[in-house]
Amino acid sequence: MADRLTIPKTYKLAIGGKFPRSESGRTYEVATPKGAFLANASLASRKDARDAVVAARAAVGGWAGATAYNRGQVLYRIAEVLEGRHAQFVDEIRASEGVSAAQAAAQVDAAIDLWVWYAGWTDKFTQVAGSGNPVAGPYFNLSVPEPTGVVAIVAPQEAKGASLLGLVATVAPALVAGNAVVVIADQAHPLSAISLAEVLATSDVPGGVVNVLTGSPAEIAPWLASHADVNALDLAGAGAGEWVDLEIAAADTLKRVLSPEPGVPARSLQRILAFTETKTVWHTKSLI
Amino acid sequence: MSFLEYAPAPESRAIVALRPSYGLFIDGQWVDGHGEAFSTISPASEEKLAEIATADEHDVDLAVAAARRAYDRTWSRMSGADRGKYLFRIARLVQERARELAVAESLDNGKPIKESRDVDVPLVAAWFFYYAGWADKLDYAGLGANPRALGVAAQIIPWNFPLMMLAWKIAPALAAGNTVVLKPAETTPLTALLFAEIVQQAELPPGVVNIVTGAGPTGQALVRHPGVDKVAFTGSTAVGREIAKTVAGTHKKVTLELGGKAANIVFDDAPIDQAVEGIVNGIFFNQGHVCCAGSRLLVQENVHEEVVERLKQRMATLRLGDPLDKNTDIGAINSREQLDRIRALSDIGEQEGAERWSAPCEIPENGFWFAPTIFDNVSTSSTIAREEIFGPVLSVLTFRTPAEAITKANNTPYGLSAGIWSDKGSKILAVADKLRAGVVWANTFNRFDPASPFGGYKESGYGREGGRHGLAAYLKGESGAGATALVPAERSASQKRRRAGGAV
Amino acid sequence: MTMQQMLPQAERAVKVLGGDLTERSLRLHLEGLSGVDAVGLEARAASLGTRSIKTTSKAWALDKIIELTDLTTLEGADTPGKVRSLVAKGLTPDPSDPSTPKVAAVCVYGDMVPAAVAALGAAHGDPDDGLVSVAAVATAFPSGRASLPVKLADTRDAVANGADEIDMVIDRGAFLAGRYGTVFEQIVAVKEACRRDDGTFASLKVILETGELNTYDNVRRASWLAILAGGDFIKTSTGKVAPAATLPVTLLMLEVVRDWHRLTGERVGVKPAGGIRTSKDAIKYLVTVAETAGEQWLQPHLFRFGASSLLNDVLLQRQKITTGHYSGPDYVTVD
Questions:
Q1: Can you tell me the distance from the alpha carbon of B256 to that of B484, in angstroms, rounded to the nearest whole number?
Q2: Cβ contact (<8 Å) for C36 and B317?
């Protein structure tokens, strides 16, 4: 009896809740570490990046305007769906990174648990980072952190055994406060990124909140760094390229920038707060 | 036919499968109670719903021991992330079984299904969801790095929001790493017992949550038990006093959420229609069985007549009746005892000269019912301006200036909550500043959220539930100091350590 | 218009504000009205929306919705043929069920009134008597952006053509610019233009276009203004701007007519229009009317739905009650 013929999956971009090919029509080969063909991934162009930013901006109002409880629920739901798709992610990581089943499973477990950690922050970080301020006068004074808006991210590139984990470690913290994200995935190992986008599309995440571009950070990142409608830039995975130039480009529009770091960024409250703005409101108080 | 009479719209009871009798839930199992069993009834029909076990001293001892074992061997060794995962599971299971829980709550408590479905049960799920996320973030609770759980918590809850009070107690306790023994009120044990089933479905390790049913003696045994590290109580101020006396001199941390006689202050520049809604919601929501109920309306004298007139017109559309009818606004009074108390205090109100008016409701033959009632021209020295009635009875008083409103609002041994109705922000904030109440609602009332700390000043108790503060109540810092620690009158040798900021 | 300028002496305004009716006195009155807390208003509307209307109540409500509907077509592409079709639908909404009531009125552009009147024939008359009236939009509907003479001519034409009711729009630009007197005198003038030769008046509905007024405080003021100026109905929207009718805004307007009734003993009607597409939603409105102003308002001379697609959804629900199974679009007619 012959082996059943499989139906290979096509990997496209994720923009605005939909999965278009690159408007340039370009693709690039994704291979196993041994060089065997895995898939043709879309090679994102600057126009795709432009469209992704438009989609993110359109989505950020609704996402930021949802209650913190609702965002927490949605993020937790993503973890539930990821858990259900555990085997799929393990297979993709094994094929793409060439690691063992146990190592792939450990990465998927870590990614899901990291996602849950961040999900639990949506309705709490305000209480930790905000404050009522005892100013010297008849004023009610309150400081609260608010989402900065659209965040562009260069996910960790070729961080060992972390194509999914690195993506989660950079995307999840940006979402907590209500930002929308445009992320450039790990160029050599992009498959998990698109599968994650599929999970998001089936988890009550509004379209456009997370947009995934596969392709070359060297080509795309400069367009995001200089884009006037991007509020913040996470260069976590840009360390191997001309990242100082990216920071210089970002300075033109005074973006909030996180510099590159090796490997997978550690989980932290600071990473959530890096994509917030603190608003302080004064209100007079008087009985008469 | 009058459209406003609305055809019956009953929620089906079929969704709840009640057993004829329930035991105690100890160490992950259902076991017999050795005290005298009792019945729980539906206060709307007086029909018996189930037979409930009573935990005697020995049963309480078993429960505390189970909680201690679970704490020592399992729960205190588990990562915060895993504790959080159990709490997330519980939250999801509550959402999945939401309809069933709401129906059971309305059957056992008497509150309208509209409220248990739209307020109680969603808040239960939300409370577990919120605290699930804290379990692995305790470093941020405000007690410094590596705070520790207190150990075994004894939790005693009232009959007015049975499952919601259970969530307020269990969720933060577990998130912080404690194990619990919880006693639901004797007239409303059912949803706590259904919750035990949920605990089993979540595969929570045995002994982390224990439910012991019973009346006053069971509660006393629990509070007195030397194996308990923390006591959390919601109920009457009278019982709260007794508990505070009982734990005095021991190492036990205690939080109390007690009675109230909240002032709902309506200024002449209030958004008038919303203020009337707020008055109605403040005292008639949950039949007024609410510790933070707006039971005193303080209305500015220059709009007194207009507000009372509009209030009466609004009350005329309140629907009293079968709690399981989806159009019921006012359900049953929870017990005959409570009904008698409400009647007695209302009679006193009349005798002391206040003007009594009740909404024109048809009262069913069986069950315990009280029509929504207001007493106008109540003065500050009236009994019904001082004593908590815990029923759908509003006392109306007037004031002339904001300062006078504040003085009258604060002129009570209670201090749980207050309401302020005005279109002027600066006045709202200044009045809120001066009210001696733990929760102040401006242009709204009876709003609860797991992120929002709740608790009282003065004889309304101490400690807060909800928010970061509610979590901190179940933790102690590395040095041993708790966020809401009472300074014990006497300390054992092993407890003589420096406590940083321990006094309340 | 200066603050001291006298306004036309509309009867209601004079009774409530006094004889020296000026822009200033009108403004002081409107600005002295109680504010609206939006969160509280919306919560009350949502709460009314949880009423569960079943069985006999539901059947009664479905029929009542039809009896209170102004079946509407307001398109540039309207033709006499379209209007005839609409009228036929309004008279016989469900050919398969003769027990279906007629609508209250058909609502068309002023120049389509003759076609509507002709199509109604003997069925043309007062909906309180079980007949169907003709409502016409006027005053440069929907924008209202034209000179007063043009708007009055628009109105007179419609009345002369046989319209029983006029749905006018207020000048939102003037309102938002604070020129309450201008808005007021336009309504008074249009009311006058509704007077027929025999001394009777076409009934005047005043469209506030609540979506453009934006805040609930503005809606409260505009409602009072329209009533003081003589409107018989206050109406939420043209249906050409989003948001159109919402439950909270309608609740607010019902509170105003309730308060007006308590103050003067007089009853003014309310018409939500646009965006009410399902029976479920329409039933929420009936509940809101009954529990706010009172059941007495559930009559054609005090409450209307401005709708078109709502009717078919109501018919589908009626069919389900009759047949016991869910129905589909093939079993209701297009108009």
A1: 11
A2: no
